[in-house]
Amino acid sequence: MIEFQGLSKSYGGYEAVKPFTLSVKRGEVFGFLGPNGAGKTTTIRMLMGILQPSAGRVLVDGLDCHADAAEVKRHVGYLPDTPIFYDYLRGREILQFVGEMHGFSRSEAAGRAHRLLRELGLEEVTEEFAVNYSMGMKKKLGLACALIHNPKVLILDEPINGLDPRASRDVQERLLAAAASGTTIFVSTHLLDMAERMCDRVGIIHRGALVASGTLEELRAAASDDGSLEEVFLKITDEAGEPAR
Ligand SMILES: Nc1ncnc2c1ncn2[C@@H]1O[C@H](COP(=O)(O)OP(=O)(O)OP(=O)(O)O)[C@@H](O)[C@H]1O
């Protein structure tokens, strides 16, 4: 469903993402892990068609994320690390707007917005302006925006970072439900316990290079470490260069 084919990005002589090739299968939850500055956001921006690759390409369902960016967006839902909204629209209005942008009729968009707000536990704040939302509410509203068109692929940048335990569980349950119904999820995170619980496979990017990818068992074998994903991550990123920050 997602094919990275020799994808890379350089700024001048600096390789922020070194060429890498990776396939994420339909319905898979794939965790994209790496220390600060490793190249995760740069990779996600290329996947979203926001940044032009220096070499290689990335495909979603056979479509080139740069050349066919508009078509790719029909199939992809994106939750940025810090979702930004029109502050003086209400939560319900924002979702309605995003739904109509995806081509749904007014009543279809309203129905979808209502369902998602309820599923994500936002029903009590649907009429609040987004400017008054807490960070957790903004993340949930951002996720609702990403889900409203039932995308085949979800691209998530730190979906539960900063959420309280209940909100974090709500979001993870909603994501697992999406994965169970066949949505492919590509999630970038620093939260390794979440990645260990949710992801079928993970990739570790360090100093711009994809240094490992596979199931936790495969990573354990590669690192000769039977520990948690955190221990394996620290070992792999140590061996790949400087210690993880
Ligand atoms: N526009 C730019 N010009 C030059 N260098 C950049 C630019 N954008 C990013 N970089 C560099 O590319 C590298 C990768 O950055 P990126 O934001 O992708 O890391 P990240 O893995 O998302 O980090 P974090 O976990 O801290 O968000 C960093 O060294 C960053 O300074």
From TrEMBL:
Nucleotide-binding in keyword set: yes
Chain ranges of the ABC transporter domain: 2-232
PROSITE patterns reported in the protein's UniProt record: ABC_TRANSPORTER_2 (PS50893)
Organism classification: Bacteria, Pseudomonadati, Pseudomonadota, Betaproteobacteria, Burkholderiales
Keywords for this protein: ATP-binding, Cell membrane, Membrane, Nucleotide-binding, Transport
Any one GO molecular-function label of the UniProt entry: ATP hydrolysis activity
Highest taxon above the source species: Bacteria
Segment forming the signal sequence: none
Keyword Acetylation: no
Protein name per the record: ABC-2 type transport system ATP-binding protein
TM region(s), chain numbering: none
SMART domains: AAA
Gene3D superfamilies on file: P-loop containing nucleotide triphosphate hydrolases (3.40.50.300)
Family matches, as CDD domains: ABC_DR_subfamily_A
